Amino acid sequence: MNEHAGAVLIIIGMIFDFFGCVGLIRFPDVYGRLQASAKCITLGTCGILFGTFLFKGFTATGFKALLCLLFIILTAPVSAHVLARSAYFSGVKPWDGSVVDEYGEKNKNIV
Question: What is the pTM of this model?
Answer without folding.
Answer: 0.80
